[in-house]
Write a structure and sequence with these properties.
The chain has a single domain (4-162), classed as Rossmann fold (3-Layer(aba) Sandwich), CATH 3.40.50. Helices cover 47% and strands 15% of the residues. It has 6 helices and 5 strands; from the N terminus they run H-H-E-H-E-H-E-H-E-E-H. It has a 5-stranded parallel beta sheet, sandwiched between helices. Helix 1 packs antiparallel against helix 6 and helix 2 packs parallel to helix 3. It starts with a helix and ends with a helix. The model has no long low-confidence stretch (mean pLDDT 93).
C-alpha cells in the first residue's frame, strides 16, 4: 500500500538524485527545502524517519555555519528534531551536550585539518550509540570509527541517509 508518507519519501529520494546530478545554487536549495517542510506539515506527516530521533549540530572551527543552515532545513523536511548548539564550540561543550541529551546523531562542521584531534576526542567521548556526521572537509575519519562517523559531502547525501 502506497501511503502519503511513502509518496513524500519517494519525492525526497528523487530530489536528492537530481541534486547529485546538478547541485543548484544555495538559495534555490533553501527555498526548495522550506517548501518541502511546509508540504510535509500540510500532509500531516510527523516524520519520514522510521523512528523518532534527535540530532545536535555545531561547528568546531567554522564561524559561519552555512552548511548547517541547509542541514537544519533538511531536518525540517524530514521531521527530524534538531538542536543547534552553536558556532565555534569547544569539545567540552559538545561532549557535555551529547551526554545530557543523548542524541541519535551529532552533526559537526569541520573545515580545518588542525581540528582532527578535536574530532577524535569528541567521537571518543560522546555516547557510543550517537552517530556523528561530519560536513565541511573530509578527513576520512570514517575509517577510524566505522559506523560511527559518516562524512556528509552535501545536503542530498544527508537526505539520502534518512530516506535511502
Amino acid at each position: 500500500m502506497n501511503t502519503t508518507r511513502d509518496t513524500f519519501r519517494s519525492e525526497l529520494r528523487k530530489l536528492a538524485e537530481c541534486w547529485d546530478i546538478k547541485c543548484p545554487p544555495r538559495w534555490t536549495m533553501l527555498k526548495t527545502l522550506e517548501e518541502l517542510a511546509e508540504k510535509r506539515i500540510k500532509l500531516s506527516i510527523k516524520t519520514v524517519l522510521d523512528r523518532e530521533s534527535l540530532i545536535l549540530t555545531a561547528t568546531i572551527d567554522d564561524g559561519w555555519g552555512l552548511g548547517l543552515e541547509l542541514i537544519h532545513k533538511a531536518c525540517d523536511v524530514l521531521g527530524l528534531p534538531y538542536r543547534f548548539l552553536g558556532l565555534l564550540l569547544t569539545p567540552e561543550e559538545i561532549i557535555d551536550a551529547c551526554r545530557e541529551m543523548q542524541p541519535n546523531f551529532l552533526g559537526l562542521t569541520i573545515l580545518h585539518d588542525s581540528s582532527k584531534n578535536t574530532l577524535h576526542r569528541i567521537v571518543s567521548e560522546v555516547p557510543e550509540d550517537t552517530i556523528v556526521f561530519i560536513g565541511g572537509s573530509n578527513f576520512f575519519e570514517e575509517a577510524f570509527f566505522p559506523g560511527r562517523v559518516i562524512f556528509v559531502p552535501n545536503v542530498a547525501y544527508f537526505i539520502r541517509f534518512f530516506v535511502p
